[in-house]
Amino acid sequence: MCKKKFVVGITGASGMAYAVRLLEVLSTCDCDVHLVVSDTAYRVLESERGISLPKQEFNPRAIGLSANCVSEFFPSGCIHFHRCDDFTASIASGSFRTDGMVICPCTMGTLGAIASGLSLNLIHRAAEVHLKEHRRLVLVPRETPYSLIHLENMTRIARAGGVILPASPAFYKGVKDLEGAVNFIVSRICDQLGIENNLTKRWAGPDEVEEEDYSLQEKSYEMVG
Length: 225
Ligand SMILES: Cc1cc2nc3c(=O)[nH]c(=O)nc-3n(C[C@H](O)[C@H](O)[C@H](O)COP(=O)(O)O)c2cc1C
Description:
By secondary structure, the chain is an alpha/beta fold. The chain has one domain: Rossmann fold (3-Layer(aba) Sandwich), CATH 3.40.50. Helix content is 40%, strand content 14%. The protein contains seven helices and six strands; from the N terminus they run βαβαββααβαβαα. Helix 1 packs across helix 6 and helix 3 crosses helix 5. The N and C termini lie far apart (54 Å). It binds flavin mononucleotide. The site of flavin mononucleotide has 16 residues, from helix 2 and helix 3.
């Protein structure tokens, strides 16, 4: 059976913790990842995570992944890195089949470019390909508040078949810290891509929640006392 193939775009919005966690999860799944990082994303990676990468390169160790997950270094590696200005990359063509694409986090700039059909870089082009081929495209925007232009761009993409999955974590079912919030969003992304995961507890009705809340209260009480 062929391995699943996913395209992952990382753009220069706040929320690099989501991107790093997503790559961690995907690199442990039996799938191929085609990764593209926008120019500004390198800058945000540095300011938010202290991760300094040479532009247009990808060092898995710098983001805490093992080097053997990158195909450039190991033939069995699952991460194939593409430069953001490389329109000759496989993922720029609809004839290269994939099982979906996610842009996480997704800037309003990239969202606007996709909504307008502008292919200014490889991330925009791969997203355009996913829409035209009617394949799964998941965008994880990070901005607040949204302007009417942002909302209209999102509506346009949703009408064209894209999934808008805002980085809006829930705080039920035991999510009580940033790690839990990040896992919640990455879990929802994986759900959209059809990847089995237990990154977060799932809602199973109010009765279970009451029980869960009770145990959490007990735990906090223990810690405070
Ligand atoms: C530190 C930093 C944080 C940013 N955060 C956001 C953000 O949360 N959302 C957003 O839409 N743009 C944000 N921007 C602005 C985008 O990076 C900028 O519009 C850029 O041109 C987007 O290019 P890209 O989509 O190709 O990455 C941020 C920029 C910097 C430097």
